[in-house]
């Protein structure tokens, strides 16, 4: 473990406390309690964002007076370890973490054919004889959230009450009420669309695939942010397209300067980006850069495929604006789904194809036809009743706290020099380890422990990012997860020791 622990024990010193709190005669006892509580926080008994026992509970548990308990809490609050929230009690604060962000990417400066399907297949299908103990490698949200229970009831009720007529083919564009709810959701990102501008798809994956088929022919060049979602990269491979990876920064997003040079040099037919809560880097481009990106595409008369699947999980409120919000001539094709916000097994997504609507409907028809019906109605009702908004609020808060805890564990247990992303939303961390590290070799070793990470080369057309990896922090973090991250960090350190 290197020196940057998440919460250090509070130094033994006196603090200025609120008037009326007498601590002179009990200083030694309150300091002992202060150190005890700080140690519990340090060991993960109480984690970032957790509510602590009330002052009264702490009195009973430790057998001390209210004055001593108050002095203990006041000392930790003065140190910044805990914070008081009005009418709610004391909570563990987010620890200061000065871990640097990953460096700006340096991909190949020419279009290349995508490969690495075998590695992606092993990650998606699974090659180990036993399922991994933790969903650290995949893109699964938290499926056990209590705020999903109303959706579960609606789905059960829909199946129980469904008549055979409800299993007939649906409208090609999808359920009208669901599309209406989707337009409401899109409006939160500044994207104002009519329900006829939205097409329901079988997940975001189909939306992206339709968009690519609309805009490209085999052999064409598509500009992508790099690193990029491996599922999108595999769509390029399946269609015989070349990826031109554009340097991307973990804080500001795709390099507009590098993209402009690429547009001047290569016959790019489409730009495919995830500008909000990016997967895997986690950044959200600011409004000025998004507007500039859309304007750049307009000047070069190129369409943009916007993957917004994580956008509704942005931690900040209001949620960031989409690229489509700045689109004035229909060149942005916005793709999203409920796979990352609700349940991936619903296979419900949508495409707002702008000027390409009629052709998109035709592509939808020849690929899958109409979508499954029952889930559409249930999700529409879930949204209309306000359950979806409450669920998003709960998940944003949960994922933000778990991001902070996961970054702290990485800072504690991974090799010194490890760089970690600071996502603005979603539930993915991108790690960049020192030279000599091999994420694919690490993954092979972790299989012995029934653990799995997403190796960095999957996120590149040319196999870059060998010393990078992605971790999922969606599921509630517990002692078992803590131990898993510690083991992964230990294995990474051992690998680098062998290399050196």
From TrEMBL:
It comes from the Bacteria. GO terms for molecular function: DNA binding; DNA-binding transcription factor activity; pyridoxal phosphate binding; transaminase activity. Keywords: Aminotransferase, DNA-binding, Pyridoxal phosphate, Transcription, Transcription regulation, Transferase. The keyword Transcription regulation applies. InterPro entries: Aminotransferase_I/II_large (IPR004839), HTH_trans_reg/aminotransferase (IPR051446), PyrdxlP-dep_Trfase (IPR015424), PyrdxlP-dep_Trfase_major (IPR015421), PyrdxlP-dep_Trfase_small (IPR015422), Tscrpt_reg_HTH_GntR (IPR000524), WH-like_DNA-bd_sf (IPR036388), WH_DNA-bd_sf (IPR036390). Transmembrane segments: none annotated. Residues 27-95 form the HTH gntR-type domain. In the C-terminal section; belongs to the class-I pyridoxal-phosphate-dependent aminotransferase family. PANTHER family: HTH-TYPE TRANSCRIPTIONAL REGULATORY PROTEIN GABR (PTHR46577), TRANSCRIPTIONAL REGULATORY PROTEIN (PTHR46577:SF2). This is PLP-dependent aminotransferase family protein.
């Amino acid at each position: 473990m290197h020196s940057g622990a998440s919460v250090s024990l509070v130094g033994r010193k006196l603090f200025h406390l609120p008037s009326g709190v007498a601590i002179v005669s009990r200083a030694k006892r309150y300091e002992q309690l202060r150190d005890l509580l700080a140690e519990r926080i340090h060991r993960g008994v109480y984690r970032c964002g957790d509510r602590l026992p009330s002052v009264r509970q702490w009195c009973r548990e430790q057998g001390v007076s209210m004055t001593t308990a108050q002095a203990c809490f006041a000392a930790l609050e003065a140190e910044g370890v805990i914070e008081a929230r009005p009418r709610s009690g004391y909570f563990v604060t987010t620890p200061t973490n000065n871990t640097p962000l990953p460096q700006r990417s340096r991909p190949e400066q020419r279009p290349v054919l995508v490969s690495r399907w075998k590695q992606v297949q092993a990650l998606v299908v699974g090659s180990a004889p036993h399922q991994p103990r933790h969903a650290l490698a995949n893109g699964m949200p938290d499926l056990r959230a209590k705020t999903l229970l109303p959706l579960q009831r609606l789905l059960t009720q829909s199946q129980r009450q469904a008549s055979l007529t409800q299993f007939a083919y649906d409208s090609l564009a999808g359920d009208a009420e669901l599309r209406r709810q989707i337009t409401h959701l899109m409006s939160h990102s500044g994207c104002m669309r009519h329900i006829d501008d939205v097409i329901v798809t079988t997940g975001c994956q189909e939306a992206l695939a339709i968009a690519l088929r609309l805009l490209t022919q085999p052999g064409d060049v598509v500009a992508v942010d790099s690193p990029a979602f491996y599922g999108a990269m595999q769509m390029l491979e399946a269609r015989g397209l070349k990826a031109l990876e554009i340097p991307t920064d973990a804080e500001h997003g795709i390099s507009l300067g590098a993209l402009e040079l690429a547009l001047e040099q290569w016959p790019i037919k489409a730009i495919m980006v995830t500008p909000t809560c990016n997967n895997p880097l986690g950044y959200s481009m600011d409004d000025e850069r998004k507007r500039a990106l859309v304007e750049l595409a307009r000047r070069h008369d190129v369409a943009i495929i916007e993957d917004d699947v994580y956008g509704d999980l942005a931690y900040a409120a209001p949620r960031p604006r989409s690229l489509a919000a700045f689109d004035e001539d229909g060149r942005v094709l916005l793709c999203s789904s409920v796979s990352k916000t609700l349940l991936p097994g619903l296979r419900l997504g949508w495409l707002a194809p702008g000027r390409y609507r009629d052709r998109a409907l035709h592509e939808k028809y020849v690929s899958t036809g109409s979508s499954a019906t029952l889930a559409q109605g249930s999700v529409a009702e879930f949204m209309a009743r306000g359950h979806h908004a409450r669920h998003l609020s709960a998940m944003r808060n949960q994922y933000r706290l778990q991001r902070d805890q996961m970054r702290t564990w990485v800072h504690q247990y991974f090799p010194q020099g490890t760089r970690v992303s600071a996502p603005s939303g979603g539930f993915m961390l991108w790690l960049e380890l020192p030279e000599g590290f091999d994420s694919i070799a690490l993954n092979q070793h972790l299989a012995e422990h029934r653990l799995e990470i997403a190796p960095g080369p999957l996120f590149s057309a040319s196999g870059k990012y060998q010393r990078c990896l992605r971790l999922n922090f969606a599921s509630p973090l517990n002692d078992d997860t803590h131990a898993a991250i510690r083991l992964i960090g230990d294995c990474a350190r051992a690998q680098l020791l062998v290399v050196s």
